[in-house]
Amino acid sequence: MSRPMTILTVSLLAAGLVCGCGDKGGGPAGGGDANGAAAGADANKAAGGGAVKQTGGVIGISVLTMTNPFFKEIVDNVRDEAAKHGYKVVAVSGEFDAARQYTQVKDFLVQKVSAIILTPCDSQAVGTAVKEANLAGVPVFTADIACLATDAKVVCHVATDNYSGGRQAAKAMMEALGNKGKVAIIDHPEVESVILRTKGFRDALREANSPIEIVKVLPGKGSKDTSFAVAREILNAHGDLAGIFAINDPSALGAVAAVEIAKRTGKIVIIGFDGQPEGKKAILDGKIHADPIQFPDQIGRRTVQMIIQYLDGERTPAEVLIPTKLYYKADAEQDASLKEK
Predict the structure, then answer these.
(1) d(CA 241, CA 224)
(2) pTM, whole model, 2 decimals?
(3) CA dihedral 31, 37, 38, 44 (to 10 degrees)
(4) Under DSSP, is residue 115 helix (H, G, I), strand (E, B) or coil?
């Protein structure tokens, strides 16, 4: 995957914006698990001082799904970064099933992992699993999708700045439509990252006093197949529809297929979100207008770096946000990753 930004600006979310889970101090001085931090610090001292890193543990990670390349890239980079610090990784997938993910967390606890990374299947329901880990003294970190259960404690949340990305999607839509027309949103409201994307999209339209009208919002489960069916329903109900904001690339690709079958290619502006290879290729082909692209490699690596920092007894930020970048056809035309070898 192309990496347009050679240096990513990592920003902390301003105080008061709700994204993470419970108290957000991190590290021994904050809202994370103090016992876990102390254990990391003690191990550090036993090894010969602060400059020596604690190594040899296991990190457990449960992601939303492995069918989406975005999450696979997070896992691959978690493995790579963890290996640099002497940690092994056990990776599993909840496959959109919160109950299954809860069981996976319990399995991690039986395995006595050093830390747990979650990309929640359900941002509220995951609180039960997080609290189990809290009781066991195992620090939990979230990547890409936050926990919204206020009585559970996550040390640090590392993610795309999804709210700003949603605003970028609205900007691209307004530009493409000449700031007029009817649009629909293919949503996935069970997860926090998408809640922020759609909020950013709506807020940007409202603050611009845009006459663009959102006529339909339907859940596509973040999948191509479901979003295809949803997009067909939307297109059948709204013959004058001008645009679709799909909350990830699989959803956008499902919308592309529906538009093609309806013979409305070139009449419907589709804005996606992600920057996966297939999504970028669709932008190159003119089927998707633009994407706010994410950097899952950075999410995976930064999450592990926060774990190591925490286990070494250092103060850890409550949240680390990685900005998106709008990616258009002109970018795709210059993207070396899309060129035939």
Answers:
(1) 20
(2) 0.77
(3) -150
(4) strand
Q: Which two tokens stand for residue 151?
A: 């009585």
Task: Please give the backbone phi and psi of residue 89, each rounded to the nearest 5 degrees, phi first.
Answer: -130, 130
Tokens of 203: 């807020």
C-beta atoms surrounding 333 within 10 Å: 11
Pick out the chain residues at pLDDT < 50. Answer: 1-52, 341
Q: Which residues contact 282 (CB under 8 A, 6 or more apart)?
A: 249, 252, 253, 256, 272, 288
Contact 116, 133 (CB under 8 A): yes
2 exposure class (CB count in 10 Å sphere: 0-12, 13-18, 19+): middle
pLDDT of residue 56: 77
DSSP 337: G
- pLDDT in the model for residue 140: 98
Domains of the chain (ranges plus CATH)? Answer: 34-161+295-323 (3.40.50.2300), 162-294+328-338 (3.40.50.2300)
* Angle (deg, nearest 10), helices 69-84 and 296-311: 40
The radius of gyration of the chain's CA atoms, rounded to the nearest angstrom, is 21
Please report the pLDDT score of residue 27 as a whole number: 37
The predicted pLDDT at position 339 comes to 82
β 182-187/213-219 pair status: parallel
Compute the Cα dihedral for 296, 96, 62, 127 and give only its sign: positive
Buried b (16+ CB within 10 A) or exposed e, 102-113: bebbeebbeeeb
In the numeric block, the tokens 């691209």 are attached to 172
Q: Where are the strands (E) in 69-194, listed by range?
A: 88-93, 115-118, 140-143, 156-160, 182-187
Q: Which pLDDT belongs to residue 54?
A: 57
* Amino acid symbol at 326: L
CA distance 96 to 222: 10
How far from each other are the two terminal CA atoms of the chain, in whole angstroms? Answer: 14
